[in-house]
Design brief:
By secondary structure, this protein is an all-alpha fold. Helix content is 65%, strand content 0%. Helix 1 crosses helix 2. The longest helix is centred in the middle third of the chain and has 31 residues. The chain is elongated.
Length: 63
């Protein structure tokens, strides 16, 4: 789901790799696991943004 492909395009890509499923199977899979992946991505982004806000700049002794 990283790229904006239709379910039928995803079905074709998987078929080229030897996985024979229908586009409905892809849709069921995405409905089941898509929210889990999206929440994990959001959680990692929030942690990353919080770590950036804690940065502190220090001057070194060189003038």
């Amino acid at each position: 789901m990283r790229f904006s492909l239709s379910l039928r395009n995803q079905e074709d890509l998987l078929h080229e790799r030897g996985i024979d499923i229908s586009h409905e199977t892809v849709r069921y899979w995405w409905n089941g696991f898509g929210t889990v992946f999206a929440s994990e991505i959001r959680r990692k982004r929030v942690q990353q943004m919080r770590s950036y806000s804690n940065w502190q700049w220090h001057r070194d002794g060189v003038s």
